[in-house]
């Protein structure tokens, strides 16, 4: 692995360790809040944080696996392992949502008094601040380094912050009004929100496994580079296809060149295109098919309309 990629990998793994540490701290804080208050709302918040911890551990494993170089069984590397991490996290979120909704319905049917809400609120506020700081850092790093694992984990932490804020508001209303039924109602709303978050995360991971095209901003940079190169060097690019695999980028295209160019001359231009695309996108695997102007494809063998088919 090149030194620059090794440094990037170390940075990504440190962010995942940050997520793990924050998850452990917030689990402790939220379980204390649950214990002193007996609130199912605080319990639902704590359950989601346990999911955060498990997801962060899986994410760290996926990052390490995705960094492994290509081998005989995986010619294009292991970068898709990050999507596995996102699928695991989405699935765990769905499980947590079901558990929270079940617990909330049980508490609606069997109400229990709440105690020491003030202390519980203090612990939850501290936990929310920790999650907000870590979540923002992970999302920002995930976008910068094109890591779906970091971005998914960061968004999960930020969702947890919204969950905690909802629980805090609900508990504050219980303390003010004395309506203890608000506790399971808030927990139900939290469960529904988590359910929606898990669905979105799973959907995103599954679509990514289907090799979606590059994001719009990267496609724009790629097209600008190809247009400029074509105008400056008298070539034409067609059949441009792209795919994103975690942090990896795969580009396939046809470069049409004047028919009188030698193979060596056209190959030199193809090398320039590969290097230029890699610089433009920050790294990419580019496959270029070179053909003369006017070369077309028909059903069966490839042939040029300007040339006779070989016999």
TrEMBL record:
Its main location: membrane. Residues 215-293 form the Cation efflux protein cytoplasmic domain. One of its GO terms (cellular component) is plasma membrane. It is a multi-pass membrane protein. Residues 16-210 form the Cation efflux protein transmembrane domain. One of its GO terms (molecular function) is zinc efflux antiporter activity. Keywords: Membrane, Transmembrane, Transmembrane helix, Transport. It is found in: Membrane. InterPro entries: Cation_efflux, Cation_efflux_CTD, Cation_efflux_CTD_sf, Cation_efflux_TM, Cation_efflux_TMD_sf, CDF_Transporter. The keyword Transport applies. The chain crosses the membrane at residues 15-36, 42-63, 84-105, 117-139, 160-179, 185-202. GO terms for biological process: intracellular zinc ion homeostasis. It comes from the Bacteria. Belongs to the cation diffusion facilitator (CDF) transporter (TC 2.A.4) family. This is Transporter. The lineage of its organism: Bacteria, Bacillati, Actinomycetota, Actinomycetes, Mycobacteriales.
């Amino acid at each position: 692995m090149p030194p620059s990629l090794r440094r990037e990998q170390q940075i990504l793994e440190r962010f995942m360790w940050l997520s793990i540490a924050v998850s452990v701290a917030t689990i402790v804080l939220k379980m204390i809040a649950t214990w002193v208050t007996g609130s199912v709302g605080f319990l639902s918040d704590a359950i989601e944080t346990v999911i955060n911890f498990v997801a962060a551990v899986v994410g760290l494993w996926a990052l390490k696996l995705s960094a492994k170089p290509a081998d005989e069984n995986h010619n294009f590397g292991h970068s898709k392992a990050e999507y596995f991490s996102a699928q695991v996290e989405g699935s765990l979120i769905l499980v947590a949502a079901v558990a929270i909704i079940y617990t909330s319905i049980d508490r609606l049917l069997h109400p229990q008094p709440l105690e020491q809400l003030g202390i519980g609120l203090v612990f939850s506020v501290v936990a929310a601040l920790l999650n907000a700081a870590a979540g923002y850092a992970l999302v920002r790093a995930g976008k910068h380094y094109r890591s779906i694992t970091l971005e998914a984990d960061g968004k999960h932490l930020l969702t947890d912050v919204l969950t905690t804020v909802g629980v805090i508001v609900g508990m504050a209303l219980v303390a003010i009004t004395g309506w203890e039924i608000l506790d399971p109602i808030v927990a139900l709303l939290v469960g529904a929100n988590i359910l929606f978050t898990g669905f979105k995360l799973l959907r995103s991971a599954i679509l990514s496994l289907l090799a979606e095209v590059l994001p719009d901003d990267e496609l724009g940079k790629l097209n600008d580079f190809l247009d400029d190169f074509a105008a400056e060097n008298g070539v034409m690019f067609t059949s441009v296809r792209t795919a994103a695999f975690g942090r990896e980028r795969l580009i396939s295209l046809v470069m049409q060149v004047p028919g009188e160019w030698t193979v060596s001359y056209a190959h030199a231009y193809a090398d320039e295109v590969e290097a230029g695309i890699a610089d433009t996108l920050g790294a990419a695997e580019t496959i270029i098919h070179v053909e003369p102007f006017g070369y077309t494809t028909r059903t069966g063998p490839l042939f040029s309309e300007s040339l006779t088919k070989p016999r």
